[in-house]
Amino acid sequence: MEKKNTYLGNDGLLHCTVCNEAVEVKFDVPVMGITGHGRMCKCQRELQKQIEERQRQQEEHIKRDRCFPSCIQHEWTFENDNGRNSKMQVAKKYVANWNEMKKNGLGLLLWGSVGSGKSYMAACVANELIKQGADVKMTNFATVLNDLFNCEDKNEYIRSLCRYSLLILDDLGIERNTEYSLENLFNVIDARYVSGKAMIITTNLNLEELKNQKQLSLKRIYDRVLERCIPVCVSENDFRKDNRVEAKVKFGKIINGGKMDEEKYE
Ligand SMILES: [Zn+2]
């Protein structure tokens, strides 16, 4: 540290002319010929703090760039939220309990119709966790499948997705359901599942479609997701729709003596 702008104080130590703090420490007895050492005064400590804060902000910016597909999502934060979606509270609680969520590999399944704000909610979680120092990746299923199709080492790509403490996958269910893509999709979800790492998944699919999937290659993906991601209905309308579906299923079971009812009552 610089020792410019100092004066010799009454205590025999050099002091900073700005903050008047001593800028050196002297030993009572010299140690191996050394009589003392410098110390940071208040100005230097504040300068140091500013440098560290700037570094932290730079690192945070790099993390945000790496996390999101575009800069738009940098602005999708709890602070910028209009407060209209009551389910935002769930996202806030998830962040507040992040250490426990992370330890248990627990995530969220944000489901609801198009435009209900699922991606916004997921990005809010990402931004807040990045602020806290976490490594987060937000991408979507179409991009992951495209990347997997084009990359040379698929295992390495999947491993790279597992390095993030939180992986957010947008738009489950809009990918083309070829056996090849479903196999790849399963591998990504399964790798996160096996490594016990948290995921947040958004989907336009109805919860019932996820729970009662008949196609096996889809079912094993959805089962993995449902095992670790807590379903949160993001749009109030869909929640009612889901209740209606559940009521219908119950109704069908009752009149069919416990068996699932395939018939429609509309
Ligand atoms: Zn000073």
UniProtKB/TrEMBL annotation:
Pfam families: IstB_IS21. Residues 55-247 form the IstB-like ATP-binding domain. InterPro entries: IstB_ATP-bd (IPR002611), P-loop_NTPase (IPR027417). This is Cell division protein ZapE. One of its GO terms (molecular function) is ATP binding. One of its GO terms (biological process) is DNA replication. Keywords: Cell cycle, Cell division. CDD domains: AAA (cd00009).
